[in-house]
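User: Predict the complex.
Assistant: Input components as received:
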Amino acid sequence: MEKLITILRERGYKITPQRRAVITAFLESDKFATAQQILDRVRETNPDMSLDTVYRNLALLVNLGVISEINIRGKDGNIYELITTEHHHHLVCLNCGKAECLDFCPINCEKLENASKNGFNITSHSLEFYGYCYNCRTTG
Amino acid sequence: MEKLITILRERGYKITPQRRAVITAFLESDKFATAQQILDRVRETNPDMSLDTVYRNLALLVNLGVISEINIRGKDGNIYELITTEHHHHLVCLNCGKAECLDFCPINCEKLENASKNGFNITSHSLEFYGYCYNCRTTG
DNA sequence: ATCGCTGCAAACAGTTTGCAGTCCA
DNA sequence: TGGACTGCAAACTGTTTGCAGCGAT
């Protein structure tokens, strides 16, 4: 938390209560959240918070490279997550919508090299697995 | 083309000129298209076509399991693609936005089994690679 | 006292829906 | 002929932007 605040301060950004609240809510959301989820959480303590501010602060954090936006199938908007040093992927539950991190990358890099030989220079990839989490499978 | 028409007919759907045009345009789009791209193409021959109809027909085809919607990073909407019998992935050029198909799945399935052992039942996955295609690399 | 940040409201883009008229089967 | 399909317009969702005032530095 203070680490993020320090980064912002160092780069000349002001530390407003709203900004603090967004960061706090974000860190509390278990690394995954949509803008709306963050707003809901922030409003528990800052009822006047606006969604715009959430978006603006998330965008700022994305620009600073602190968090990232990921694509999850579904229409409820983009999901933001903390950038960790490790490149990783997600298991997304089709029932409850929760995402878990995968702690390894199951991509076969040798095969990938081949694709690059066709002239395509791969710089990144996004990989999400869909299915049903333990909870939903056993209680559904 | 006629195969799709037959499927529709068999299920009791009417074959309207608009529906034909959407299917034709879709097949011509090299298997990838956004709703808007299909509309643009359709309008070359059917200038009165509306975007709603494109959406409705794409949704119908998705429901019939004939085409699918895929997530590509970017804000210009969902991309639809023909379902082929082969499960496959895409190389998406960050410069021109074009997508190419990958003819194999570079996912290491053994490792994946492990994840499932944590209680998560994986039913599908989406994987997109981002980078720069030959054209953009050499002419950019 | 700045100048960035905020809330508000309005604008956006992509998509969906209600409705009255059209047209395929 | 009748129900499915269409175009239009309006609604909706997630997101962005313009603006005037507020507040961290």
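Helices of chain B lie at 2-10, 17-28, 35-45, 51-63, 109-117, 134-139.
Let me know if you want any component modeled separately.
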